[in-house]
Design a protein that fits this description.
- This protein has one domain.
- The protein is built from one helix and ten strands, in the order ββββββββββα.
- It has one helix at about 155-165, and strands spanning about 10-20, 25-30, 40, 50, 55-60, 90-100, 105-110, 120, 130-135, 140-150.
- A five-stranded antiparallel β-sheet has the order 2-1-5-9-8, with no helix packed on it. Strands 7-6-10 form a three-stranded antiparallel β-sheet, with no helix packed on it.
C-alpha cells in the first residue's frame, strides 16, 4: 500500500456564521494569527472575502459545503450545541455564552491556546454533524465556563502491569566460573 507524501492544504473548507445570521462558505487557514485584524476566506469563485472579527460568530470547519438546493438555514448542520451526556474524548469541557445570547458547548485542548490566540478551537458536541471543528473568536464570547476536565482513558493493560509482582526482585549477580 502506497502512502501519499503530499502536504495537507493550508486552507480548509469552512462555513462562517455572522451575528446577523448570514453565512458564507469558503476556505480559511487552519489557524489564525492573534494579531490578525480580520478574517479572510477564499470563496468558491476565487475572491478573497474579508470580515471584521466583531461580525463573526463562529467559524465551522466542515466536511462538505451545502448543495445549491440543500440546507440554507443551517449549512453547518450544528444541531446539537450541548452535550447530552459526559463527553468521551479527552479535553476541557467548555460552555460559553456568545454576544447574542446563544450558548455553545465543546471540547477544547487543555493548553495555552485557551488564554493566547485569536479565539478558541474546540470539537462540537455532535461528532457526526457536518462540523468537524469550531473556532469561536474572542470578540464573540460574552462569558466562558469550564464544566470539567475529561482525562484520557487509562489503559487496563497498564493497571494489570502495575499489579503484577516482579519475577526477580533486586539485581541478579552473574557468577563466572571459568
Amino acid at each position: 500500500m502506497r502512502q501519499s507524501r503530499t502536504m495537507a492544504s493550508n486552507r480548509k473548507p469552512v462555513i462562517v456564521r455572522k451575528f446577523t445570521r448570514e453565512w458564507c462558505a469558503g476556505y480559511a487557514a487552519s489557524t489564525f494569527a492573534p494579531e490578525a485584524p480580520q478574517l479572510e476566506i477564499l470563496d468558491s469563485a476565487g475572491k478573497v472575502l474579508s470580515m471584521s472579527w466583531d461580525q463573526v460568530k463562529w467559524v465551522c470547519y466542515v466536511r462538505d459545503f451545502p448543495a445549491h438546493g440543500g440546507e440554507q438555514t443551517n449549512p453547518e448542520r450544528l444541531l446539537h450545541k450541548r452535550f447530552a451526556t459526559r463527553p468521551r474524548s479527552s479535553g476541557l469541557w467548555l460552555r460559553m455564552t456568545l454576544k447574542d445570547g446563544d450558548e455553545l458547548e465543546g471540547l477544547a485542548s487543555n493548553d495555552l491556546s485557551l488564554i493566547e490566540g485569536a479565539g478558541i478551537f474546540m470539537a462540537p458536541p455532535d461528532a457526526r454533524s457536518n462540523t468537524q471543528r469550531l473556532f469561536v473568536p474572542r470578540q464573540a464570547i460574552q462569558s466562558f465556563e469550564v464544566i470539567g476536565l475529561i482525562a484520557p482513558a487509562r489503559s487496563k493493560r497498564s493497571d494489570i502491569l502495575r499489579q503484577q509482582p516482579e519475577l526477580f526482585p533486586g539485581e541478579q549477580q552473574v557468577i563466572d566460573e571459568s
